[in-house]
Amino acid sequence: MPKSKRDRKVTLSKTRKKGREYKESLVNLIRQSVEDYNSLYVFTFENMRNLKFKEFRERLKSSSRFFLGTKKVMQVSLGRSASDEIRPGLHKVSKFLHGDTALLFTNLPKEEVVRMFNEFEEPDFARTGSIASEKVELNEGPLEQFTHEMEPFLRKQGMPVRLNKGVVELVSDFVVCEEGKPLSPESAQILRLLGIKMATFRLHLLCRWSPEDFEVYEEGLEGINDSDVESA
């Protein structure tokens, strides 16, 4: 009987950021998942929120398994070319593993996976460096949403405020952020205080592999070639 490619030993000693044992363990877990689950997806994410993603993983715990490990190690696990892939067609999956991407192994029907990913959307407060989706400007006058104890803190965020008979008051119009420009730490903090959420945590499916077929979901990605795969 031919020896299974999944049992092939892989040397990962050249990489130093994480221990060799961790990398070899990740390789083995991914290769075992190829055998244990019906299909494999690569997905990408924007505005990742760890707590929300943990909740999403828990919902699929009984039928699926996620991997957000080192991309190069995940590529090695699946195979980066037709000559070293562990199952036919898996090297095509490796070509999508770069940037903010991860793996999902699952036994769920394709239609259900697509529906869950399309429906997943979690608004949240934008972080420093995020691009403002709109201009936010506060007009001169009282800011009754803030208590008087917050006046010193608001001044530290650059807001031209003062106390007027115990009420926080803007002494002039103030632009919190401009549409299309990165948020400063102060702007991000003020938006949070105002309750304005400019970030949305989303997940996007890129491709799907199964022993029967391979399909790409995102338009324009079909043209990815072997040179796009990260070198190990």
Automatic annotation (TrEMBL):
GO terms for biological process: nuclear-transcribed mRNA catabolic process; ribosomal large subunit assembly; rRNA processing. InterPro entries: Mrt4 (IPR033867), Ribosomal_uL10 (IPR001790), Ribosomal_uL10-like_insert (IPR040637), Ribosomal_uL10-like_insert_sf (IPR043164), Ribosomal_uL10-like_sf (IPR043141), Ribosome_Assembly_uL10 (IPR051742). This is Ribosome assembly factor mrt4. It is found in: Cytoplasm; Nucleus, Nucleolus. Keywords: Cytoplasm, Nucleus, Ribonucleoprotein, Ribosomal protein, Ribosome biogenesis. One of its GO terms (cellular component) is ribosome. Residues 126-196 form the Large ribosomal subunit protein uL10-like insertion domain. One of its GO terms (molecular function) is RNA binding. The lineage of its organism: Eukaryota, Viridiplantae, Streptophyta, Embryophyta, Tracheophyta. Component of the ribosome assembly machinery. Nuclear paralog of the ribosomal protein P0, it binds pre-60S subunits at an early stage of assembly in the nucleolus, and is replaced by P0 in cytoplasmic pre-60S subunits and mature 80S ribosomes. Belongs to the universal ribosomal protein uL10 family. Associates with the pre-60S ribosomal particle. It comes from the Eukaryota. CDD domains: Ribosomal_P0_like.
